Amino acid sequence: MPQLSPAGNEIVQRLGQRHGLSTDAVTHMLIAIHNGNGSMAQFNHPEFGGCGQWMRGGMTMVSDLFNYQLKSRVENICNDIANELANHQTSPFVGSFQSQSQGGQCQGSGNSQSQASGAMGSNNSLFIPDPDQNWWPEELGVPNATGAQNNVRYAYFPWNRRLAVKTGSDVWVYDTLDHQIGGFGQQQGGGSSITFTSQYGTVNLATLPVVSRNGVAAAAPSAAAPAASANNPSANNPSLSNPPADSDNGNMNRQQSAGNEDVLGTLERLGSLKEKGYISDQEFEEKKRDLLGRL
Length: 295
Hints:
The protein is α+β, with helices and mostly antiparallel strands. Among the domains are: 6-91, no CATH class; 244-295. It is built from 5 helices and 14 strands. A 7-stranded mixed sheet has the order 4-6-7-8-9-13-14, with no helix packed on it. The protein has a 4-stranded mixed sheet with strand order 5-10-11-12, with no helix packed on it. A 3-stranded antiparallel sheet has the order 1-2-3. A hairpin with a 4-residue loop joins strand 7 and strand 8 (162-167). Helix 1 (6-19) crosses helix 2 (23-35), helix 2 crosses helix 3 and helix 4 (248-275) runs antiparallel to helix 5. It is globular, with a radius of gyration of 22 Å. 34% of the residues are buried. It holds the Pfam family SHOCT. This is SHOCT domain-containing protein.
């Protein structure tokens, strides 16, 4: 959670007095709007009627749909906070992922996901600088979008087809192949598997080849990781372990297994394209026969 600077605390006190709100409520909304790149917020606080959404110049939603007084109060405080954020912004906002998770009824409550944080890639004098702000490998440059979900952080670099994922103290770098990533999701419980959305629909993070872990190149970056979760994105991933040298037969078996996974992954993507009407049933069947012949 971002920590307020002295200037941030002063503004929270002033806005709280102006709008008759507690400092906790104003701080909550300040962080929510900062996470929304200064123009939107998803919030959950009792002084704002619980769950709600705000978008600058757009629609404001509160849990009590017909409480117009509450809606006006939310709009007023959000507009004031957005103006203060803009006045204290010291670098442009980086784009943010839209992230969702299952397991909570409201954004920001329980185990559910707070909105992906664009604030991670920007500087604002209302907050104390995060020493771990640029946590991804330096050679990747500046990300096009950043995000956070529970204990996982994301940074996307589409121009060099790279995705950095941080879990705990570990930083993983994935090859995004031809995916155009637009958001992330995390299934709560049962391993907390990580998925992302692209032009192919919802895809498991484990299908992307691992390039490196903590700056150390993976042994076989072309092989997709068979499992990934919020707690251990390398679970059961042979490319991130350090096994003894295998025989030629062992290498051939691994290469054949990786090839089979590529074929099955391609079939899944073709099935998604057929469901969306991009290819015909006949085209799908012809391609399927060709791919299955490679197994």
